[in-house]
Amino acid sequence: MKVSVITPAFNSARFIGETLRSIAAQRATAGVEIEHIVVDGASTDGTLEVIRRHARGIDVVISEPDRGPADAINKGLRAATGDYAGWLNADDLYEPGAVARLCAAVRRRPGRAIYFGRCRIVDAGGKEIRRPITSFKNSFFPFSCRPLIQSINYLSQPSSFFSMEAARSAGELRTDLRAAFDYDWTLRLWRLGGAYAIPGPPLASFRWHPGSISGSEFRRQFREEFEIAARDAGRFAPQTLAHALVRFGIVSIYFLMARAAALRQPRR
């Protein structure tokens, strides 16, 4: 089984070295074949120098201007030759053995379009944060089904993988979406084979920091997610109503967290 990992990057010099090392470490697991594709959007901050230092663990490097992360991931998907794939942003991390656990899950539950697992949230220094949010998302895993994912997006993108056969049928990621193209992708894939929750500890760590999309554009993210869910389930479906209520609660919590973080900043 061959797994393609795509890393979209743009001006990611601060974190990408750690990301690349976490992917390279997956190759140490016996029987795991990994194809690593890095798609850089013509960075100017030293990202390419970091990529060159880790070149031995990378199979394909594409560096050229793009129209955002979804466009970069689409380029990686076109180049991918694996049976399964996932993308790991240039500030996120795979936990040890993540890809091996994916392969074991595929053997255990073949034919699913999506395979997903738990995901930690860490800060810029790698310290785990926001544990209640993580526990809340994990609580939905035993009940995974299409109406539930339409009601709330409880999958974490860094710890999600997908069948390339399903990916080719689903079509490319939407480049008109800035923050929720992964949720749109999840719902399209779900129609093509469902999903399987990989048990056990986290597969990945999502890095939250003020410069990340989730850190700086959470209002847009949840607005886009609501519109995607309404289109997928139907504007007046019960799932859409549930999603609207969930959106209101999550955006309110994120706003209060951002406000509290701003108040903790030292005054100049």
Counting copies of identical and different chains, the oligomeric state is: single chain
Spatial arrangement of strands, main beta sheet:
3-2-1-4-8-6-9
Topology as H/E string? EHEHEHEEHEEHHEHHEEHHH
Query: How far apart, in Å, are the first and last alpha carbons?
Result: 55 Å
CATH class: Alpha Beta
Number of helices: 11
Q: CATH homologous superfamily, by name? A: Spore Coat Polysaccharide Biosynthesis Protein SpsA, Chain A
| Helix content, binned percent | 40-55%
The figure for the number of domains is 1
Radius of gyration: 18 Å
Mean pLDDT metric: 93
E-strand count: 10
Q: Return residue spans where pLDDT drops below 50 for at least 5 consecutive residues.
A: none
Q: Your description of this structure?
A:
The strands form 2 sheets. The chain has a 7-stranded mixed sheet with strand order 3-2-1-4-8-6-9, sandwiched between helices. It has a 3-stranded mixed sheet with strand order 5-10-7. Helix content is 43%, strand content 16%. β1, α1 and β2 form a beta-alpha-beta unit. The chain has a single domain, classed as Spore Coat Polysaccharide Biosynthesis Protein SpsA, Chain A. The N and C termini lie far apart (55 Å). It contains 11 helices and 10 strands. By secondary structure, it is α/β, with parallel strands linked by helices. The protein is globular.
